[in-house]
Write a structure and sequence with these properties.
This protein is α/β, with parallel strands linked by helices. 36% of the residues lie in helices and 17% in strands. Helix 4 runs parallel beside helix 5, helix 9 runs parallel beside helix 15 and helix 10 packs across helix 11.
Length: 386
């Protein structure tokens, strides 16, 4: 986590002027709702009971505010950035590898935290987080955070795998069969960081300090590892529900995943579990951010406050396998979450998660790093077999 804070320094300086100018245009009061709210969100982040009747935090909001919520599901951070660039949305639930790009691109507006009565309930580690804060100006409200776990088939792995090597290196699995064609990889350039994280343990001579800060040699090593993985992966997944089906019906036995898929698979009786491998995990701390040209800012502010409701935070965290940004949601009994479940979701491992961030040229751990636009083009090439 400390490396994340350092690595954001250079980008924070570059964004300083943006923050100073934008702060002058910050909204100062919340008026009557406009009747609509359009949101770009990860799958499972805004539920109205359609998937499971027990999980519904949208209907209550609509009834209380008159703001009808429409959700556009995005499967990757790059898709979220593209949709926000197109416009037509009020809010986005952005991870750290998208939020800084949205701020730099002036696609989101500063948030007046004085208009968010529940701000004080937030986890102190998230209030000033660098993925949504520039020069003291907040560009969003923390939503939930969590890890990218290794999901595995418990009938193939009688004991939990201890390493990410089961998805990165060809090998015979405990059932006597090869892992080739039975594993998956994430369909997004940020997956390069997972390869870099693996190399931090298995090739320490590379000197990688952060999986998001790679010099040319370190970056080449990560791409080489991913080219090898290309020969193993049956699919590059980005749709959570397709991955769920692949574990059920297509013979997938191991993959990086979100707790969301694992929880739904378990609930459906599938032989699937998850683990934090010995190399550690990457992860996401997601922030609700308002579009710079939001057509429904009053409804947006009403949702930002609603998003910190302890009942919502509790049920969302249980549903997605995430950790609430309002710590009291783990213990206050407002929803279905319990302290034990929070611990299972990794609430005590905040410092161990390498949260997604956007790679930049002027990085902290070394003089110059490979920037994100290279990650995008090169990962497309890897997926294409080049």
């Amino acid at each position: 986590m400390k490396s994340f804070l350092k690595s954001c320094t250079a980008l924070t300086v570059a964004l300083g002027f943006v923050a100073q100018a934008a702060a002058q245009d910050m909204k100062t009061e919340v008026g009557e709702g406009e009747g609509r709210l359009n949101v770009v969100a990860w799958a499972g982040f805004l539920e109205r009971g359609e998937t499971d009747p027990k999980f519904d935090w949208v209907t209550k909001f609509e009834e209380a505010t008159g703001c009808k919520v429409s959700v556009k599901t995005a499967n990757t951070s790059d898709e979220m950035v593209a949709l926000m660039n197109e416009g037509g949305f009020d809010l986005v639930t952005a991870s750290g590898d998208a939020s800084r790009r949205l701020i730099a691109g002036k696609r989101v507006q500063p948030i007046n935290i004085d208009l968010i009565p529940s701000w004080g309930k937030l986890d102190d580690r998230l209030k000033e987080a660098p993925w949504h804060t520039v020069d003291g100006v907040h560009y969003g409200v923390p939503y939930v955070w969590g890890p990218n776990v290794l999901a595995y088939n418990t009938e193939v792995f009688k004991e939990a795998p201890t390493s990410w090597n089961v998805v990165f290196e060809e090998q015979t699995l405990p059932d006597g069969k090869s892992n080739k064609g039975r594993v998956q990889a994430y369909d997004g350039p940020i997956h390069i960081a997972d390869a870099a994280l693996y190399l931090m343990t298995h090739k320490p001579d590379l000197g990688i300090k952060s999986p998001y800060e790679l010099n040319e040699d370190q970056y080449k090593a990560a791409l080489d590892l991913l080219r090898g993985q290309r020969q193993l992966a049956s699919r590059y997944w980005h749709d959570a529900f397709i991955q769920i089906d692949d574990f059920k019906n297509e013979g997938v036995v191991a993959s990086g995943s979100w707790p969301f898929q694992v929880n739904l698979l378990k609930a459906d009786g599938a032989p699937v579990a998850s683990v934090f491998p010995e190399e550690g995990v990457t992860g996401w701390a997601d922030t609700s951010m308002m579009h710079a040209d939001a057509a429904n800012p009053n409804c947006a502010y009403k949702w930002l406050e609603h998003s910190l409701n302890s009942n919502l935070q509790s049920d969302l965290s249980l549903w997605f396998g995430a950790n609430p940004s309002v710590p009291a949601a783990c213990t206050d009994g407002s929803g279905m979450l319990t302290a034990e479940v929070c611990e299972q979701n990794g609430s005590n491992n905040f410092e161990k998660v390498r949260f997604w961030q956007t790679p930049i040229t002027q990085c902290e751990s070394q003089g110059e790093c490979v920037p994100y636009y290279r990650w995008v083009s090169d990962y497309i090439a890897v997926i294409g077999g080049r």
